[in-house]
């Protein structure tokens, strides 16, 4: 353990997190995908280098990512608001349901296992990569759904999934809004504001869910690593406005395929770790059941739906 936390390793570790924050901030403002889609895979990888157990690695990555989204989203949303690309009416309409969904997602962090979070992230990231790689935006309708059920269900689902994945609102809300012919610049700006609504309740949920967990990195609040969060948002808050500025002056179609490739490789790697390398073996009971990847409750051991 002393080798892991040597001065040389910590310096490289810190520089890597600063670079991650800078890149995630730019992408959050430029593509509207949410910085968490970059931060979570990086933190998941670094958690492996730190020797964290599998059931801790993904929750720590997700919880820490959510903590960085708060200041980054504030910075990005302010920049987009100055350019008139935050739709106040949509924000007021969606914010309550998104908040409730994110709160549900934060609470679920105490119930679902790290393996489930890994699979969820891998699948959604793969879908986002495919969406970014498409030459044209998929359009389902000319306007957003008018029914009360749809107007509640969609933002609630965005809140739940975003909280469980550790991402801002952009990763899911921008493709959904674009599919209903919502102007892309307003979709990106509004999604930045929704990131705040998602991150605040979700991060408290992950702090609560991991409060009694052992083997966490030093200076952690639940599933949130304070040093990692501070290092990431130290740079992301400055680069997020740069990204939003570029969004209004640069053709993002040049960068989308590159980022789509990054997400494609990242998602496949995470899914391969989950399925291809016996990741779930760490969560099996005496009879070899893999039920824990859905029902695992992390309290130092794993509880199963079918028994104690």
Keywords:
308 residues, mainly alpha, two-stranded antiparallel sheet, 2 strands
Protein architecture, described:
The chain has 308 residues and is mostly helical. The protein has one domain (7-295). 68% of the residues lie in helices and 1% in strands. The protein has helices at 7-30, 36-49, 54-82, 88-108, 114-133, 148-165, 170-179, 184-209, 226-247, 256-276, 292-295, and strands spanning 220-221, 224-225.
Number of strands: 2
Count of runs of 4 or more consecutive helical residues:
11
- Which ranges are low-confidence, i.e. pLDDT below 50, for 5 or more consecutive residues? 278-308
String of helices and strands: HHHHHHHHEEHHH
Q: Biggest sheet, open or closed, and with what strands and sense?
A: 2 strands, antiparallel
The pLDDT mean sits at 80
What is the CA-atom radius of gyration, in angstroms?
19 Å
Using the alpha-carbon principal axes, give the shape: globular
The amount of beta strand, in percent, is under 5%
Structural class: mainly alpha
Strand order in space, largest sheet:
1-2
First and last CA, distance: 33 Å
| The number of domains | 1
Q: Which range best describes the helical content: under 10%, 10-25%, 25-40%, 40-55%, 55-70% or over 70%? A: 55-70%
Topology:
Layout: H1 7-30, H2 36-49, H3 54-82, H4 88-108, H5 114-133, H6 148-165, H7 170-179, H8 184-209, E1 220-221, E2 224-225, H9 226-247, H10 256-276, H11 292-295
Antiparallel strand pairs: 1-2
Helix pairs in contact: 1-2, 1-9, 2-3, 3-5, 3-8, 3-9, 4-6, 4-8, 5-10, 6-8, 7-8
């Amino acid at each position: 353990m002393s080798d892991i936390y040597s001065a040389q390793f910590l310096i490289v570790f810190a520089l890597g997190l600063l670079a991650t924050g800078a890149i995630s901030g730019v992408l959050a403002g430029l593509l509207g995908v949410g910085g968490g889609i970059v931060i979570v895979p990086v933190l998941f990888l670094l958690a492996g280098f730190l020797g964290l157990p599998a059931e801790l690695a993904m929750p720590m990555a997700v919880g820490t990512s959510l903590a960085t989204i708060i200041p980054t989203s504030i910075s990005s949303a302010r920049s987009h608001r100055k350019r008139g690309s935050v739709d106040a009416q949509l924000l007021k309409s969606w914010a309550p349901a998104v908040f409730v969904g994110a709160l549900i997602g934060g609470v679920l962090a105490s119930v679902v296992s790290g393996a489930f979070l890994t699979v969820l992230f891998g699948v959604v990231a793969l879908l986002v990569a495919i969406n970014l790689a498409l030459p044209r935006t998929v359009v389902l309708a000319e306007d957003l759904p008018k029914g009360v059920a749809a107007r509640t269900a969609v933002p609630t689902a965005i809140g739940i999934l975003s909280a469980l994945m550790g991402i801002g609102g952009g990763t899911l809300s921008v493709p959904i809004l674009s599919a209903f012919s919502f102007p892309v610049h307003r979709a990106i700006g509004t999604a930045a504001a929704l990131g705040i609504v998602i991150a605040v309740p979700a991060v408290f949920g992950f702090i609560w869910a991991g409060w009694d967990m052992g083997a966490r990195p030093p200076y952690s609040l639940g599933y949130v690593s304070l040093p990692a969060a501070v290092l990431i948002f130290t740079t992301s808050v400055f680069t997020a406005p740069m990204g939003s500025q570029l969004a209004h002056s640069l053709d993002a179609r040049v960068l989308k395929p590159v980022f789509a490739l990054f997400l494609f490789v990242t998602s496949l790697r995470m899914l391969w770790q989950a399925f291809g390398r016996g990741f779930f073996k760490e969560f099996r009971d005496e009879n070899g059941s893999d039920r824990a990847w859905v029902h695992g409750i992390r309290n130092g051991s794993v509880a199963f739906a079918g028994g104690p």
